Amino acid sequence: MSLIESFNIAKIKNIAIIDDDLRNTISLKDLRKHGGNELAVNALQDPDYEDYEKLIKLLKLHNKPHDSTNDIVNSLSDDVIRNNAPILFKQAAENVLSHRKDASAGVILIKQWLIESEVNCPIHEMSCREEINFDIDYDLILIDYYLKDESTDQSISLIEEFLEKNKDNTSPLLFLLMSSHHQELKDQFLRLRPKLRATSSRFRIMGKPRHDNKKDLLSWMCTFEQLANERDLIDPIEGFIDSWGKKLKNSVNNLSDDLWGLDAHSLNILYKTAKEDHAYFEEYMAELFSKHILALVEKDEFPIGETKNLETALFKIPSLKQGTEISDSRIVLRQLLGDVEWHREKWYEANESYPLPSVDTTDDKSDTENNIHLQDEGQYEWFMKYIRFGTVLRNSKAPNNILVNLTQPCDKAHIVYNNYEAHHLLLFPGDLGFIDDKQRVDKQATTSNYFNGNSWANIHWFLTRPQTPTIKIFLKQLENYEISGQLRHDSAQLILNQFASRSSRIGAMRTPLFSNLHGNILVKKEGNNVGWFYDESNLINGHLYTPNKGAKIISFEPSQVIKISNAMGDLDDDSELLSKLLTNQINNKLEITEYELILQIINIKPNFDKASIEDEAIIVQLTNIVKGSGQKILCLWRND
Q1: If DSSP states are collapsed to H, E and C, what string results for 132-173?
Q2: What is the mean pLDDT for each group of 10 consecutive residues in the chain (640 residues)?
Q3: Other C-beta atoms within 10 Å of 86: how many?
Q4: pTM surpassing 0.85?
Q5: Helix (H, G, I), strand (E, B) or coil at 468
């Protein structure tokens, strides 16, 4: 879509450019600053000076005002007066105009680019508030940051005045704040919008172009297009921000008031609860307060309407381009996302330096041992105080060497100094990756939005390289590290969860299931429907092997096969059955009807005496299997 089409859809009909560099007048202050000749400034205020008299005569000749110094200086703005003025004044005035031409070059370029893009709307130029026609309904206003006397007061107040005038209009007013002082704009970038209560969709901040090059042209044209395309989003966005801001402020104020209701008893309950959970009291309270604030927002008529309005407006726009402002407009978003996983700096910064080893200067062995003891104890106390669950450490000598402490708080809480060298920590190393490199391989866990002082990065933790040094060893390594961050509890725990998940995926060696089997060959006397009898010499031993779920294989040693054969009678004549027994091919519950042999595995040892089986459950089971009389059965049970 062309810029013309975007402007037409957004109904941009009037553009205003307000910049003091567009001024065509010369003041005494201009001469002092840019005239380049102090003598000319002094001469303009000295009636006895010869060139002063010549200039006054020239002004009288052309009927120009000359009652005050300001009138005289301002007359040099006129081309005729300036060209015929004494050379001293002419040169100083031209120096001022030359400087102004250089200063206004960026604004002139912007206007030129708009004209070349053929936007069919008038462009009104003004240098100060006095020249503004407030009867015109401007749609887009380009305004210089330092509008007057190198101060932002007039530009900010003027924007506020325009916003107030436009507040009831159906089409939101668009602004583009610009300056040649790029660094000052960067420094003020995040503070300007909250002060004006205007989002980037209506209020862009740009540096004036320094050269007529393609890069600056594309940047400015893209910004104009974005302002036009996002005009319909302004009211939903600002309604969303305003409603959420009010709810959050109300919730924080209500929480502040509620805190005064806590007494020593209730605070003691919270303190003891935190300690029982092995959590730092400040972390416990911070977590409690943050959730309570959200609960208060939910209670205070959660701003669903404004949120839905914004959702609907965003749904209508399939995609939006990244801003081309003087500073990255996503910095607030990045910080918001970072706060999901990270604590802020003041939270984890140590109030005291890590105790470094002292140089021993004494020959007294007892003094040396005492110093080492005090030093070790000091390092241990520092470690216990400042190295928390989720603390991220960075090697000061090798900045890419990063560690995160994932020793569970409960494990650390039970460590005492006298036994600290016997306790181990759990640490994971990591390295920095590009912010868009979310997850490189499945052997790594990723923590997003880490700010390393200069830029944003992701940290990739190596799940296959855990480190478990003793505290004593780690305290010596800690001399080369500094605390550079602390993960929130759920973010730190997520790394552990991924580690556990990754570890559980490693193929464990499958172990077979096998049991010893014991049993008897039981005989039911002919005509006896109750008792099963056995011969003590017919005790049978075997083995049960379960290679996979469901299958069972029973095996017997040769001596046991012979015993089975003898007990059962005519089995010696059946080579097939003997072969099956010897080659371990008899399966569970295999019934060999021709020899009246049934193999039955039961899970409990049957309780029977020398005469009969007394376990009623076993009797019922065997009765169901064996029908008729004079039959024999091999009954086996496990003995693991």
Answers
A1: CCCCCCCCEEEEECCCECCECHHHHHHHHHHHHHHCCCCCCC
A2: 86 92 85 84 83 87 86 87 89 88 89 88 90 91 85 86 88 90 75 81 86 82 88 91 90 91 90 85 88 85 85 80 68 81 85 76 54 72 90 88 90 77 89 70 81 82 91 88 91 90 65 70 58 66 67 71 68 53 49 38 45 48 48 60
A3: 17
A4: no
A5: coil
